[in-house]
Each structure stands twice: as structure tokens, then as C-alpha cells.
Amino acid sequence: AQKVTQAQTEISVVEKEDVTLDCVYETRDTTYYLFWYKQPPSGELVFLIRRNSFDEQNEISGRYSWNFQKSTSSFNFTITASQVVDSAVYFCALSEAVTTDSWGKLQFGAGTQVVVTP
Amino acid sequence: SAVISQKPSRDICQRGTSLTIQCQVDSQVTMMFWYRQQPGQSLTLIATANQGSEATYESGFVIDKFPISRPNLTFSTLTVSNMSPEDSSIYLCSVAGTGKRSSYEQYFGPGTRLTVT
């Protein structure tokens, strides 16, 4: 069975500080996909990134960066120089190997509330 | 990415009644899903909406309570039947497999915020 753990319930930072969100996952599959989503107070779920299990390259997109380490089953997310608009709940999610029955089904972590104050 | 709309965006319903939520996508998609997000909680998959056949439900969710239709590749409905206050949640439609090539990105609709009194 798959499981996603986001141990941090809430992180509070002052604007311009960096914030790192932890995500640890469990799966028996060798092929899987990891996602990060942002849910601002308005409630919509915004797709941020997808990472394949066979691609361990870290990625940077603007102020966002992701560190994927299969050895520790972790897919951590860092926001650099945080801004008030980054205040949201961030979810890490896992999708296991593609089969007829399981393609696209996401297992979400509990989410981490990020609060950025001016 | 696909553009997904949901109707209604929110509703307040009385217990014992039913509500049907619609999900419309602006392009054909392979997979459509329905998730529930209870207040202050994470998202839980209710079911996979299968085009032209019965939906595939996750453990803890049954067709009598959450009937789902998917008549084509761009539209699906979720009905919350015989509602109780415990059904108060955000219900989200999501899609995967957009465009001509298979895509593993999964996009979400804006959600339907349901309150049952």
C-alpha cells in the first residue's frame, strides 16, 4: 500500500525567508509519480510539479525547487525568498505504477499549512 | 493544461436531500476522478469515473451514496445522496490524460463547497 507523510502541520515564516516542506512516501512499485499541489485560501488546487521515479534530477522553477531522493523516499519542496502570496496549504501526492486500474489515482499527504507574514 | 469547471461552486442543502455536481472539461480526457476534502483535511479519492461504464469506487465509498455518471470524455457528474452533515466537504473533480499524448499531470477543478444542515 502507498502512503505519503507530511510531518509538518504548519510552518510560519517571515517574508523573504526560505521554507522547506518535507514529504516522505512509501510504495512497493519501482515506477511511480510524485506531485506537489498548492491550495491557497480560495480553495482551488494548483498543480506545481510532477516527478517520475526514474528521474532523480532536482528541479528549480523560479523561487521553487524540489529535491527528490529515492534512497530516503523523500521529495522535499523549498520556497526561496517567500512572499505573502505563498501562504497556502501544500500537498504532496503519490501515484503508483500505471495499470488499467490505478492510472492517475493520487494518494495525498495530510498537507502543510505555510503562513508567510510581512 | 485542461480547463475544468464545476457546478455548483457551492451549495447549502438540507439533510436527507441529494445534490448533483457537474464537471465539464474543455477537451477530451482519458481519466476523470472525484475527490472529497473534508474540513481541514486532505483529499481522498471517492471514485474513478469511467466513460460508458460504472465508476470504480474506493474503499469506504459506495455507488448508492455517490452515484457517478460519465457519458462522454468531457463530462461527469457526482451525486451526493441522502445527505447528512458529515457530507459537508469540498468535492473536486480532476482529470488526467489530456491532449494527444498521455499525460500524467493531473489537474483539478475549482471544487464544489457543500454544506449540509
Give a verbal description of the structure.
The complex is a heterodimer of chains A (118) and B (117). With 118 residues, chain A is mostly beta strands. Chain A contains no helices and twelve strands. In chain A, the strands form three sheets. In chain A, strands 2, 5, 6, 10, 11 and 12 form a six-stranded mixed beta sheet that branches. Chain A is globular and about 45 Å long. Chain A starts with a strand and ends with a strand. With 117 residues, chain B is an all-beta fold. In chain B, a hairpin with a 7-residue loop joins strand 9 and strand 10. The model of chain B has no long low-confidence stretch (mean pLDDT 92).
* Major sheet details of chain A: 6 strands, mixed
Distance between the termini of chain B: 36 Å
Radius of gyration of chain B: 14 Å
Can you summarize the main beta sheet of chain B?
Answer: 7 strands, mixed
- Please state roughly what percent of the residues of chain B sit in beta strands, choosing from under 5%, 5-15%, 15-25%, 25-35%, 35-45% or over 45%: over 45%
What proportion of the residues of chain A is helical, as a percent range?
Answer: under 10%
Number of helices of chain A: 0
Shape of chain A: globular
Q: What structural category do the secondary elements of chain B indicate?
A: mainly beta
Q: What percent of residues of chain A are in strands? A: over 45%
Beta strand count of chain A? 12
Biggest interface pair, counts: A-B, 22 and 25 residues
Helix/strand order of chain A, N-terminal first: EEEEEEEEEEEE
